[in-house]
Design goal:
This is Transposon-encoded protein TnpV. With about 120 residues, the protein is mainly alpha-helical. The protein has two domains: about 30 residues, no CATH class; about 90 residues, no CATH class. Helix content is about 65%, strand content about 10%. Strands 1-2-3 form a three-stranded antiparallel beta sheet, with no helix packed on it.
Length: about 120
């Protein structure tokens, strides 16, 4: 018996495993793009809570690019929110120079709020 056979009806290759021919299935290749912290969090969320969507993206070969896009959107949204909230609350370089501890505390608060907004609107939605 041949190790590999090709079925012209469905266009699949089969490999001999013991007494049976098993189809040689592979996931489509996708371009490797870096995935940051936001994309990793979203992947964890999809894997735990949206299993069908995760499996569909994985088997279509679009998971990595989808996560990289989510990561980019989340990073842009986070930066924009931090900047807008800091401007709205009067976080200036003058305040930073005159009272560093106050400035650090307020900026940490702003970053935490921006992180919660991004998580609620993009990552865990």
């Amino acid at each position: 018996m041949d190790k590999y056979i090709y079925d012209e009806r469905n266009g699949l290759w089969y490999e001999l495993q013991g007494d049976y021919y098993i189809p040689c299935l592979t996931l489509p290749t996708e371009e490797e793009r870096p995935i940051g912290i936001w994309g990793q969090q979203h992947r964890r969320y999809l894997k735990e809570h949206k299993k069908a969507a995760y499996t569909m993206l994985l088997t279509n070969g679009k998971l990595n690019s989808y996560l990289a896009d989510i990561d980019k959107q989340a990073e842009e949204m986070f930066s924009r929110l931090v900047k807008q909230l800091a401007e709205r609350e009067g976080m200036t370089e003058a305040l930073k120079a005159e009272n560093q501890m106050l400035w650090i505390g307020r900026m940490a608060n702003i970053r935490n709020r921006a992180m919660e907004i991004v998580n609620a609107d993009l990552i865990f939605a």
